[in-house]
Amino acid sequence: MFKSLIKALRLATCKLSSSVVIPIIIYIIFITFMLNLTFPNGIGKQRGHHNNNLDISDEESSDSDEHPGELNRVFHSDTIRDGMFQEPQVLGDNSDPLTIIKFAYKKADANSDGLVTIRELAKYINLRIRDHIDTSIKRNPQIFAEIDKSPTDGLVSWNEYHTYFLKNLKLDLDESYITSHDETKHVKLDRKSKEALMRDKARWAEVLSSDPYALTLDEFLAFMHPEASTSNLLNVVEDILRHFDSDGDDQLTVEEFTNTFSSNAENKKLFISDNLDERKAEFKKLIDKNRDGKADRAELLQFVDPRNSRYAIQEAAMLISLADNNKDKKLTIDEMINKQDLFMGSKFISLIENFHNEF
């Protein structure tokens, strides 16, 4: 692995200036150091043979006639992956919702039988999540280098990002307006663009830590894609421990996790239910992977990682419960179209928007 990394860095050094390469190297070292510091025994060792294998509780599996074990099996099989699941957005930004839903439905219907089961729907959503996060991580250094221009100092300032944002709008803004205008008014921007810029500025302030005016490479990933940032996910883990770890041993027991006071914490959206019995089942089945009665940071990090299949299964179960009119545990294209707004606003279609609201 290290030989491949060194080779990649050598190639990058040949193509990029030191001011771009050095922050990337520091970023890689920082993430490696943080993971080793937080998980001295290694994440892989603590996960053991469970390795993200999601065992669905009875409450979740009741939404489908699929056996939980079978649903888990298909999640960790590549037999229907290749060539089946693709991003519906390849149709283009101007495609109407009906066209987008029909396109996505066809891709989710893995066996082409005209029906989408919870297994197919969850598999499709999970593969979209994984592809999105993997792509975001890979592209982050490239986009960072594209923006870090004035000056090229290994940091991205708000002015640099603001210029990048305006240039990528499909409004044909001239260069003079982009470089010199009243940012408080933005007279040439439409309402949607203004709202997007305001959201970006608010999120920018949230991720600033090392420099009050500019973002590092890792902070830029947390800004652009908080769901893909390891440091952001580690912060979520720390929030969970802060709310639930009553004895301060940096581990959670099932008793701490089901504490009625903690169930009112602001991060309760991470969990399936506020019901104590369901919370106990959630802890045992979804969090405590090595079955030792405690959840350490590695298990909690795996639990909050959006690539964990529980996110997709929960989303698929919710969508089917709301759209399945004849209660046969499957969706026809007509049932999906009848709930067009529901699906357009879900992770089935609007993946990035959902993640940015959650993280």
UniProtKB/TrEMBL annotation:
UniProt keyword terms in alphabetical order: Calcium, Membrane, Metal-binding, Repeat, Transmembrane, Transmembrane helix
Region (Disordered): 50-71
Gene3D superfamilies: EF-hand
Residues in the signal sequence: none
Spans traversing the lipid bilayer: 20-39
Domain of life: Eukaryota
Gene Ontology cellular-component terms listed: endoplasmic reticulum
Annotated EF-hand domain residues: 96-131, 232-267
GO MF, one annotated term: calcium ion binding
Biological process according to GO: calcium-ion regulated exocytosis
Protein's recorded name: EF-hand domain-containing protein
